[in-house]
TrEMBL record:
Protein name: Aminopeptidase N-like N-terminal domain-containing protein
Keyword Signal recorded: yes
Pfam families linked to this entry: Peptidase_M1_N (PF17900)
UniProt keyword terms in alphabetical order: Signal
Signal peptide: 1-19
Organism for this UniProt entry: Euplotes crassus
Every Aminopeptidase N-like N-terminal domain range: 36-217
Keyword Heme in annotation: no
Family annotation (InterPro entries): Aminopeptidase_N-like_N (IPR045357), Aminopeptidase_N-like_N_sf (IPR042097), M1_LTA4H (IPR034015)
One cellular component (GO) term of this entry: cytosol
Amino acid sequence: MDYKALSLLFLIFLVSTEARPIEDQATFANVNEIVTEHYELDIFIDFSRKVLSGTNTLYMRRTADSLDVVYLDVWDLNIYQILDQSGNKYEFHIDDPNPNLGQRLSIFIPEDLSTSETFNFTISYETSPDAQAISWLSPEQTSGKKLPYMFTQSEPILARSLAPFQDTPSIKSTYVVNTTTHVQFVTRVSGNMTYDYTDCMIRYSTFEMNIPVQSYLLAIASGNLVERKVGNRTYVITEPEEIEKVANEFSELEDFLS
Ligand SMILES: *[C@@H]1O[C@H](CO)[C@@H](O)[C@H](O)[C@H]1NC(C)=O
Ligand SMILES: *[C@@H]1O[C@H](CO)[C@@H](O)[C@H](O)[C@H]1NC(C)=O
Ligand SMILES: *[C@@H]1O[C@H](CO)[C@@H](O)[C@H](O)[C@H]1NC(C)=O
Ligand SMILES: *[C@@H]1O[C@H](CO)[C@@H](O)[C@H](O)[C@H]1NC(C)=O
């Protein structure tokens, strides 16, 4: 091996062993200073305007010695106000968008709260009709042709277009999602349904995830949906017209899990 090749190899060795902090380049969140432990998303699924509107309450714990700003990931969200549980308003700022990462939402912490152990922010917001994580299908695009249909897909970094989050796999949290729709829609969310109530106009449903998971695993679907059990722990959810086919297709899901 000639000298040049050897020195090149040595250089590659140097570069590859250089100590690098393990950090997610695709988040704006200051996860080394504060972490989300739980969140409660309370949303109205507005099919007529193709938006989700409501609040996301983030239950966060400080890990740095003190804190003067909390950075969150957002993407094309309208942020209306940010309150704590006592109703105090927080000042906030949204940076210009980065075309690959969305925007940084900064929540400014008043000096007298900088050493508070926990921070719970209730953020009132609305998604954009173009939110990248959400697909809105018209009735014509569905099998039943009766109702519109929406579903989300947040991988890899699109949860921030659904709600403000520390949108990085390094943060895992439990959550509760409350959804409100017109009464004819059925909604399902990744998590156990713990409450489902309808009056003559409106359906409210509550879903709970008690296993801490990453923000990109939150999934929401709403439309003319039915559900069928295909194993002890497994269900399929789809339109009535598709349920037979889909149940057959996933009939071995329980075996795969086992
Ligand atoms: C945040 O919420 C948690 C859980 O409900 C509560 O224990 C804590 O006191 C709250 N923190 C603040 C600052 O309100
Ligand atoms: C979610 O709904 C439950 C009822 O199932 C209610 O107790 C809770 O306060 C709601 N949370 C929010 C954030 O709206
Ligand atoms: C759903 O409920 C079951 C039974 O209470 C529980 O064992 C499981 O952990 C829950 N799953 C989630 C995702 O919260
Ligand atoms: C499903 O659950 C029942 C009752 O707990 C059990 O007897 C059966 O073996 C389970 N089947 C599978 C495939 O795990």
